[in-house]
Amino acid sequence: MILLTGATGLVGSHILYSLTKQGEQVRATCRRQSTIGEVEKLFRFYENAG
Predict the structure, then answer these.
(1) Of 33, 35, 49, whose CA–CA distance to 13 is shortest?
(2) Of 6, 38, 40, 48, which sits with the fewest C-beta atoms within 10 Å of its C-beta?
(3) pTM above threshold 0.85
(4) How many domains does the chain contain in total?
(5) What are the tens digits of pLDDT across the range 17-39?
């Protein structure tokens, strides 16, 4: 299990995507005021691009 902090940030969201595509189990954290909407958009972008 990998703990990823800052998962909703620019770098963290890309790392999160990469780790999950490699089959890693990830526990991700973010600040309370952050939303996961941008991370969801990033995942959709990568899924549709490939």
Answers:
(1) 35
(2) 48
(3) yes
(4) 1
(5) 999 999 999 999 988 888 899 99
